[in-house]
Amino acid sequence: MSIVIADDDKGPLWQIDEVYGRKEELDTLNKMSDEKASRCVLIQGTAGTGKTTLLRSIKWEEKNWVFVEGKFEKDLCTEPYSALIRVLDRLVEIWLENNKAAPVCQMSNFRQLLEDDIDLLKGIVPGMFRIVGKVAHEIKYTKMSSLRNLTQSYENHHVTEEKVGAESVAIANAFLRLFTFLSSSRPIVLLLDDIHCADSASMEIVELISHNNLSNPIEHSGCTLLALSYNGDLIGKNKFASATVESIKAFENGVHSIELEDLDVDSLNKLVASVVGSNTEITLPLSKVIHKKTAGNPFAVSQFLRYARIKEFFTFSPMTFSWQWGDVEKLDEYAAVSDNVAEILATSMEKLAIPSRIVLKVSSCLGKVIPIDVLIEYFSSKYQEGDDGHLSCPEVQGIHEHGLDSLLAEAAKAGILVKSMTQGAYVWSNDKLQEVAYSFVPVDFRPTLHQRLGKLLWRLGLENDEEWMIFMAANQMNRYADLGQEDCALGTEVAQLNLQAAKLSLDKAALYPALELLEKAERHMGVSNRWVDNYDLTLDLMTNLAETKFRIGQAEDALSIAGLIIENAKSLNDQFRANLVRLQGCVSGRDRDYELGVEKTLEVLKLYGEKHPKKLYPGQKCVEKVKLKKLLPGGELEGLLELPDMVDETALSVQSLLINHLAVYAGMSQKYRLLAWFASVRSLKHACKLGLSPITNQSVLNIAIQMRLEGHFQEASQYADFALKMLERFPRKPGSNHGYLRVGATSTVLGAVRSFNNCLNELVEGRGDLLKSGRTTDAVNASLAYASVYICVGLPLTPLEVDLQLYHQDAKQFGAPYTIQQVFLFFRQAILNLRQTDVKNPTLLVGEAMNQERELEKVQGNGRKMTQRDINSQRLMLSCIFDDWDTAELMLDGLEEWVDATEVFIFRLHYRRCYMGLAGFALSRVCKNSKKRKKFLGIGKKMLKFFTTDMKYGSVNAYPIVSMLEAEESPSKESYDKAIKACARLGLIHHEAYMCERAGRFFVEKGDDEWGEFYFGQAILLYGEWGAKGKAEKLTDDNSRLLSRSSLRESVNTSLQGRSRYSAKELDSLRVIDWQRFSIGSHG
């Protein structure tokens, strides 16, 4: 336990250097220290059982580990990342000290890592950047002036600004990258103490680090041993911490759970014998009484021994140089620790001088670490006689650092405080001692103390730009208000301070701590006349409350608050953010009603004087184009770059409504799709008059999308390229749309004129941009686009199946709409059906990943409609490949309403239309109903026309599909060979396999088994190379009579299946298939 027990009775110090009663736990930790692998350790125990001491007792440094620890405090539970910030600051200090002579490239890598994440982290760990800045001057870091902004009057706040900042998981990933890098030189033991007091944002990071550890236990050369300690009786009260612990326990390997209980009599006896320097037989009667009094709690034991020594039960004989003790039965007279712990702990403080006790009482309100600068400022205030002996005294009035250090040193000598070697500050040796010190503050004086400290910390925080002081100030003022003080004026101050602290939390993407602060602000502010007496504060508070509740999924409450804001707001600008909450409510959840979103957005725009038709009259597009060209500088689109920045608040509000809402919702709606183009043109006209906003480039892209939908592929591509060029006008920062535009341009326009293979890299890099800028929900959409194009180009299925599991996990963690989360499940189950050999019905999406009926039950309204469409699309693909035309008929019937539907997202449209065309032509021959055969033939021809038109417009991806559909429309050896060759040249191995299979069936139906055997053999090999083992085996079994062993002697290309991820460098070597091995020409 390493607890020093001392007094001024001339006896030697009592030093406990060994941990008793924990042999099994110590063996486990020592084994882990030798293994050097990433692990997670969960240490559970009640207060005082020695959780932290257990970890500290291991000689980590001797085994080349870096040991760092951070503690979450109950009084700081609303300060995001508090323990992690201190840990990270310390790790960076150690890393820089250990790498003074590091190679230039290693320091360069560290600088690059920090520069990549500086926008995400500079407001969260500014201390770390200051530390690094002393040695890495190339890092361009400037201190955020967030606190200074908080002091501005509420009349000047910009309520029209649409909040788009970093999302919490992006910050969590930035933390993970730092921890991973810092562990690459030396392994790290990261102890986070008392996680039952942790905030939700910290737990998100802890969960990410732990899952990374357990998924990659020996990742490269670095490793992190994450140790989490918590009180088992309290963990259930923190839903975020308890969920994190349960998610860690779910891993089968790499998790070690340690549950500490109080010491038994034998272990306690060894401890006592060690302290008094005697043998265990002599001390056993003494130890039994101590165990009876303390229940074996290690902390209680140490305090009871101290108490008994102060009461002179223990005495040291200078004659025999040994400890002696009185009658053991007399020891029963002392109070049991469990009965009166405060009295026993108080004995340590009662012997201190009055000035020391006063310093401890004030310090008890200020957290585990004693902030000397705050205490100096507190005691510099005017002395009030009424405080004498309670909150102040003449001896501490105007005290300086040296005098304060002497008083704190006295408390440290008594074992109440300890001086931290790493932090260089005094800290409470135990939480219970801090609680006892607070109990010494008379109840009547507590409100005054909290109020004074709150106002002092508030002032110091703003003056020194120290965020932790703002959070602690809010805590002090809340404690003041919670004590039942009735003071309306001060209630407003408490609300204002909580709002400021909440905004700091929101800037750090810590939503739940922010919500707690906002709710306290609203409660302390009172209800009556708030909109009259404190309009600006009320507006700011309620707006942030509505937005925060909406972001964490409390949509009903958020919409109610938004309605209250709109009812009381004095202007449209004041209503703006509340209106956005209402609009987002229309298209969120499991019923994503985009048409309602369009209609509600039009209503809001009308309030700004913006009249928009729900339908365009004939010729209106031409008129709007002419008007726009007249407004553009020089009459050209490039003239937009000459415009100034847009600064008018109302104009920015209208731009946001047009681009981020009307254009987006209309683009997702079949009924109002043309309004997306109209909204974009209208926003550009506004830009010509009032300047560019950071999202004007999205208007250019929206126009490009409409051009593509109308068949103007090349012109659309030019517009999309110009939209990307406009990104250079505005800097990258958290929430910026650089990655969004990059992914959007690729998925909606550039994919129409560029090879799908070339789009993969753009999507991967765009997703990376989105994660770095904190737009994690958009990053999920980028992952979905990547998965769609990946399967369109026929790359190996196994790596994608692994990726889809990670993408689905991201989608859940990032809070993506559930209908988006489902698509990853659909793709994965479809791939499992293709790969696995024991699937009873491979055309049903039922298995390891999902159950289609259960997924449908989870959505409703428009969300259910989209889910049904996506299920039918996947099942149609499986029906074609598994030759199940009865199911294909049902799926094509279910997709009939989507036959003529246009699609903003190119890859999804391409995928669906391809299999609708293949199924249409196949069913036109096998369907028994003549009327249906005609309908399906019409669908096939319509899909063929779509792809033929795209090919004429410049799509390089349409030609293989056209060849396939033509072969299915008019089957012949020549048409199948043409389709097979077209697919092979673009590396579409899945389509090549399908065409070989269809050719094989064509020849078998004609009675030509030789050609049938040849094509089936090639199809089986190609399906195997694709990774569709289940399909390959089924095709082999179904044609066992026909196939000879010679047809299958070529082994499957395992290098394709073993590849873990797509990369452009591998593409050429992986996707070029040797056509000569088919020898089609020689059989003519």
Automatic annotation (TrEMBL):
Domain (AAA+ ATPase): residue spans on this chain: 37-233
Gene3D superfamilies listed in its UniProt record: P-loop containing nucleotide triphosphate hydrolases
Protein name (record): AAA+ ATPase domain-containing protein
Lineage: Eukaryota, Sar, Stramenopiles, Ochrophyta, Bacillariophyta
InterPro entries: AAA+_ATPase, AAA_16, Hybrid_Histidine_Kinase, P-loop_NTPase
Superkingdom of this protein's organism: Eukaryota
Record organism: Cylindrotheca closterium
